[in-house]
UniProtKB/TrEMBL annotation:
Keywords: Cytoplasm, ER-Golgi transport, Golgi apparatus, Membrane, Protein transport, Repeat, Transport, WD repeat. The lineage of its organism: Eukaryota, Metamonada, Anaeramoebidae, Anaeramoeba. The coatomer is a cytosolic protein complex that binds to dilysine motifs and reversibly associates with Golgi non-clathrin-coated vesicles, which further mediate biosynthetic protein transport from the ER, via the Golgi up to the trans Golgi network. It comes from Anaeramoeba ignava. SMART domains: WD40 (SM00320). This is Coatomer subunit alpha. It is found in: Cytoplasm; Golgi apparatus membrane.
């Protein structure tokens, strides 16, 4: 049994699959109805209207409807598109047990504890028949899928089969169709037939058979969808199989095995199987041909209530007291392998080979009898010896293929058999050993993974970040290159060298189920149900992705693109991490090989299906990533893939200029032109768009790039005089300012005229403007301050004539201040001048085009593609790895830039005179960068100022995402390895690296364990003194410092790990104490915090103090039972005499009365850990996640958040391990 979807909820009484969509609906005991998508694994609908348990549910086969019935005696019909109940059907007077839609007619049948069944016409919302006959509760009722029959079961120990032919003839003149489903006659409300139906039961539904063999009440009965058989389940703990014909029905078989009442039973719609659920906590699968119980699934502590089947996907679902789960009875994945142009696969107990050239297949071998698809895990083919290994559960078989006479299989013991050379293969034996066997199935080498010598060989690689694989965790082998094999554990994949018996590579990869090697064995894909990891042959991580829909299979194309399938899509993934959809799939398929624009896949019927594939999109993205721009242009010209997604992709990758050549939408052209710095194209688009916001953007960008002409035109378009005046001022265009002043005067724009008088130094005009605005005082001060005494005198007389106060002028010597006029008028900024093609021709080109030409010349003449430095004047040639990351260091990678083929083709046609030749510098490496270039130790890179690499290593090794707390530590470490040389007083000091005298390498000054220990002792002393806040800061600083710690031996490694754990415990305790003080008004929460404090792993003295506090607080709150627990713990730990005496008194008092006045969330008998975010207990058996660095525990809902303890790592992140060994 393979569980596909498991939901933990309250008790579910009924469950049904949607006939076409990947949905499942469940009815709760509390009256709620929910719909889930079992592929994406989330709830998509919730309906609350029933009062009491919902016991019956059913989807309509064609309409967006479902029906429900429950303890409120009402049948409700819902529209799941409108997400509401559209009408109710009333008539039953007791609990409704089941509802079921008819496949063709607009009918709905319901069964009830009122001992009747009712058939409703859901279109006109009336009851058309009441069926009576049972003497007890009617537990189920359903229509036959193809015949005019109804089956019902009851607690009167019978199953009854009813004929509804008369009812059909009464209401339908002809059989309904999908086009005309409402061809029926409905009698009036006062008709005799309806009156008889209410009084005496329906005469249109005739009882055909009564099946009486159960000793107790029957809970469920079902028709087989195709065969004339019935299955029933009863309170007598038995299943009974019945056969019916047109004239009689009889018992065929009885199935015994359940130990309690059987709640539900259904047929497998495809195989000869029956699935039953029972109140004995089991779900059982029965073979109807052999009358045996083939599988049993037990879920202790719960009762199963319902089971449902999905005919289209071979899925089943079972509902129980704590939710439901969707499952498959067996694996449907076909087993296959490749041999040149042949696909070798299993079907019908035979091994077949499909030839890709001739599109024909042939049987090449026979397997053992009764070998099923679900038994085969994989096929491994050896082309040198024409041998095939069939991997089974804990065993394997070896077959010779392509022989005229079929050979019998040679069995062997062991799991996960894979070829490691042309005449040897490896198997896992008893989960602890790897056996290397020859073609005679004899052991040639035995590798014990837990052998001391083997582990010692692995330990030699500890400084290279290799981990020891646990013998009990190696669960599967995968093939690799010759002489190598991949080992899979729960969270890692290792590459094992068979000859040297040691791992040579590893990668973090959880629960990997399948792998796929590229044809040249250079790249590897590791994937499970929901994630894919791409890596190279040395297991170096390239990219990873996640899918919400299950991943079914995957193969590499010859171009190096990984193609994979989900349940309903064929997708691709590039090594850069870019993904996309190639096409949709009608049903799940499993890829076998890829040939040009076709993929060959196996379906679940084990037939080869060729599928067409349009590779244009991923070829385009691959060409962009590999910088094959000629192919990019060719694809864009010859295909129709260019759309919004391709434009977004080009913009994301930094190639908007490529998109600009193909986009026709003017708004988008405008945005692309701004991104790539093509101001002239942006100007042309802005003229066509002619919107104010576009002109604002264009003005801003043109000023950045120094195109003054376009900036001026843009300002004029939006009529912003003041901004344009200032532009003229800084560029020295005095005439332009005067022109703006004239225009402002005609428009009576006082402020523009006034500001321009300052730019022009025109004091007289400024005074006249102030006079016009009746600002005589300001005009007087202006004249006075500029030394215009005559004008000031006139204004003074004017003020006095108007009886206004003349302002006092305090300046002693007035000065006529005039602005400096520019000597030269500025033009648009010159662009870069570059020598090209080895001929003395200089081209005035844009920065982007310059980079393209540089890239082209470097490839053509020097054969290299080195990273170029930034063209910004302020940028030094030093990269960010050698600078302080907080000092805004810049690391611009210009190595991946587009190549403009049109420009390169026309280089010879350009003919402009050079002004200055720019020589492109070559990017090099600094001495400090070379010293620790290959180091995996964080402090080495911090010492040299390579903070970016240090950040990357910390994220990879311990999951750090918040680097702010590390700032001072990084700066101090960096400054400790650098000094300065002072020269002349007017020159800046020269920074110097401190290097080793012996090796002349950069010196890394590590943090040592002795310093950490001193701080740790200080924190313990402060804790003893009750200074929790000061102590917590020191413990947190220790956690911040340990990643930069350098250890000298394995004992210090263990000591550092122990320090991390202790710091985590103390910080957690302090956080709990903070929470207790915050919630001092909430007595319940305060008591909980005091109890949780005692479960932190502190030193003995501190633990006794925490127990003392919890004991007194609970005793004071009259929680005597809990106080007794803490008193006993105090006595057991041997507290001092005074505290022990108080504990004895409290224990003596509490033993007489162990009641708790306040109920709190605390159970001392059930082991738990504390969630460090919500400060609630996580009891044993419940799911939890942890911080990858400090190990603090959290509830799953806090995944991906910042750890509350160490305050720097991401909760639940998958990591490698911290490397700080110096040995």
């Amino acid at each position: 049994m393979k569980i596909k979807f498991d939901v933990k909820t309250k008790r579910i009484k009924c469950i049904k699959f949607h006939p076409t969509r990947p949905w499942i609906i469940g009815g709760f005991y509390n009256g709620r109805i929910s719909i889930w998508d079992y592929r994406s694994k989330h709830r998509i609908g919730k309906y609350d209207q029933h009062k009491g348990a919902v016991r019956g549910l059913d989807f309509h086969p064609n309409q967006p409807l479902f029906a429900s019935g429950g303890d409120d005696c009402i049948v409700r019909v819902w529209n799941y598109k409108q997400k509401k109940c559209i009408f109710e059907l009333s008539g039953h007077i007791d609990y409704i047990r089941s509802v079921h839609f008819h496949n063709e007619y607009p009918w709905l049948i319901s069964s009830s504890d009122d001992q009747t069944m009712r058939i409703w016409n859901w279109q006109n919302r009336t009851c058309i028949s009441v069926i009576s006959g049972h003497d007890h509760f009617v537990t189920s009722a359903a229509f036959h899928e193809k015949k005019d029959l109804i089956i019902s079961s009851s607690l009167d120990n019978t199953i009854r089969v009813w004929d509804i032919t008369g009812l059909k003839n009464k209401y339908f003149s002809v059989a309904p169709t999908l086009k005309d489903p409402v061809n029926f006659y409905t009698p009036g409300p006062n008709s005799i037939s309806e009156l008889q139906s209410d009084l005496f039961g329906s005469t249109d539904v005739m009882l055909k058979f009564i099946l009486e063999d159960h000793e107790k009440g029957v809970n469920w009965a079902s028709f087989h969808p195709d065969l004339p058989v019935i299955i029933s389940g009863s309170n007598d703990k038995t299943l009974k199989l019945w056969k019916i014909s047109d004239t009689q029905a009889w018992l065929m078989d009885t199935f015994n095995g359940h130990r309690a009442s059987i709640s539900c039973v259904i047929f497998d719609p495809i195989d000869d199987l029956v699935i039953s659920t029972s109140e004995d906590s089991t779900l059982r699968v029965w073979n109807t041909q052999k009358n045996i119980n083939t599988k049993t699934f037990r879920k202790d502590g719960t009762k199963f209530w319902a089971v449902a089947a999905n005919r289209n996907e071979k899925l089943f679902a079972a509902a129980h007291d704590y939710g439901f789960f969707v499952f498959k009875l067996q694996n449907e994945r076909p087993a296959f392998c490749l041999n040149e142009n042949n696909i070798i696969y299993f079907k019908n107990e035979s091994i077949l080979a499909y030839n890709l050239n001739s599109n024909s297949q042939a049987v090449v071998a026979q397997t053992s009898q009764n070998t099923q698809v679900s038994d085969i895990l994989s096929l491994q083919y050896n082309p040198y010896e024409s041998l095939l290994i069939i991997e089974l559960q804990n065993s394997f078989e070896m077959l010779s293929l392509f022989k005229r006479k079929f050979s019998s299989p040679r069995p062997g013991l062991g799991s996960s058999a894979v070829w490691v050379s042309r005449n040897k293969f490896a198997v896992i034996h008893q989960k602890t050993d790897i056996f290397i066997k020859n073609l005679e199935n004899k052991i040639t080498k035995k590798i014990q993974i837990n052998d001391e010598l083997f582990q010692q060989n692995l330990k030699q690689n500890i400084n290279q970040n290799f981990s020891l694989p646990n013998a009990h965790n190696i669960t599967r082998l995968f093939p690799a290159q010759n002489g190598l094999v991949l080992l899979r554990s729960a969270s890692m994949v290792f590459m094992l060298d068979i000859q040297q018996q040691r791992t040579v590579a590893e990668i973090v990869a959880k629960n990997i189920k399948y792998i796929s090697w590229s044809d040249d064995m250079q790249f590897l894909a590791l994937f499970n149900a929901h994630s894919i990891i791409l890596c190279d042959k040395k297991l170096s991580h390239l990219c990873s992705l996640s899918e919400s829909i299950r991943i079914k299979s995957g193969k590499w194309s010859k171009s190096g693109v990984f193609i994979y399938t989900t349940l309903n899509h064929l997708k691709y993934c590039l090594k850069s991490g870019d993904t996309g959809i190639i096409r949709t799939l009608e049903k799940p398929v499993y890829l076998t090989t890829i040939k040009e624009n076709s993929v060959f896949a196996l379906n679940r019927k084990h037939d080869i299906e060729p599928l067409g594939m349009d590779s244009t999109e991923f070829r385009f993205k691959l060409a962009i990533n590999e910088q094959r721009f000629d192919e990019v242009v060719s694809i864009l010209k010859s295909s129709k893939i260019f759309g919004q997604s391709i434009v977004s992709y080009l913009r994301e990758k930094g190639y908007p200029d490529i998109a600009l050549n193909f986009v026709e939408n003017e708004r988008l052209r405008f945005e692309l032109a701004l991104e790539c710095g093509d101001i002239k194209s942006a100007f042309e688009s802005a003229k066509k768009i002619d919107k104010r916001e576009c002109w604002h953007k264009l003005t801003k960008e043109s000023l950045k790039l120094g195109d003054l002409e376009i900036a001026e035109n843009s300002y004029k378009r939006i009529n912003v005089s003041q901004e344009l005046s200032f532009l003229y001022l800084v560029t020295g265009n005095i005439n332009g300012i005067k022109e703006i002043s004239k225009n402002a005067e005609s428009k009576n724009d006082f402020m523009t005229q006034f500001n321009n008088t300052f730019y022009l130094g025109d004091v007289e005009t400024r005074i006249n403007l102030l006079i016009k605005q009746n600002q005589l005082a300001f005009a007087y001060l202006t004249a006075k301050s500029h030394g215009l005494e005559e004008k000031a005198s006139d204004l003074q007389k004017l003020l006095e004539s108007q009886n206004k106060k003349v302002p006092e002028f305090k300046q002693k010597t007035p000065i006529l201040m005039q602005p400096q006029l520019p000597i030269l008028q500025a033009e648009s900024w010159p662009l870069l001048m570059l020598l090209a093609n080895g001929i003395f021709q200089i081209f005035k080109i844009s920065i982007t085009t310059t980079i393209i030409i540089i890239y082209y010349l470097m490839i053509k003449f020097w054969g290299m593609t080195q990273q170029l430095i930034s063209f910004d004047e302020d940028n030094s040639s030093q990269t960010i790895d050698n600078q302080n990351a907080w000092l805004d260091g810049v690391d611009i990678d210009l190595g991946e830039l587009p190549q403009n083929s049109n420009l390169l083709d026309n280089l010879d046609s350009q003919n402009k005179q050079p002004q200055t030749i720019y020589v492109v510098p070559i990017h090099g490496k600094f001495k400090s960068e070379k010293s620790f270039e290959s180091s995996e130790i964080v402090s080495d890179h911090v010492s040299t100022g390579s903070f970016k690499i240090a950040f990357h290593l910390l994220n990879k090794q311990i999951g750090v995402i918040n680097f702010k707390p590390l700032k001072n530590l990084f700066l101090n470490t960096y400054l400790g390895t650098h000094s300065t040389l002072f020269g002349f007083s007017n020159l800046n000091p020269i920074p110097l690296e401190i290097t080793s005298f012996q090796t002349e390498k950069s010196l890394s000054i590590p943090l040592k364990m002795e310093i950490i220990k001193k701080e740790f002792k200080k924190a313990l002393d402060l804790t003893t003194s009750g200074k929790f806040s000061e102590s917590m800061k020191i413990f947190q600083n220790i956690l911040f410092s340990i990643p930069l710690l350098i250890v000298d031996d394995l004992s210090e490694v263990k000591e550092a790990q122990k320090l991390i754990t202790i710091c985590k415990e103390y910080i957690t305790a302090f956080k709990i104490e903070e929470e207790r003080r915050k919630s001092s008004k909430d007595i319940k929460r305060s008591l909980e915090m005091s109890c949780y404090f005692t479960h932190c792993n502190l030193s003995l003295n501190h633990l006794i103090l925490s127990l003392r506090s919890a004991m007194f607080l609970n005793f004071k709150a009259k929680n005597y039972g809990i106080a007794l627990t803490f008193a006993k713990r105090v006595l057991e730990l041997g507290a001092n005499q005074e505290l022990s005496e108080k504990a004895r008194k409290i224990a003596s008092f509490c033993e007489k009365n162990q009641n708790n006045a306040i109920k709190i969330n605390y159970d001392e008998r059930n082991p738990f850990v504390i969630c460090s975010h919500s400060f609630t207990p996580i009891y044993r058996g419940n799911q939890k996640i942890s911080c990858p660095y400090c190990g603090a525990s959290y509830l799953p809902k806090f995944a991906d958040k910042l750890c509350n303890i160490c305050e720097k790592c991401q909760i639940g992140l998958e990591i490698c391990e911290l490397i700080n060994q110096n040995f």
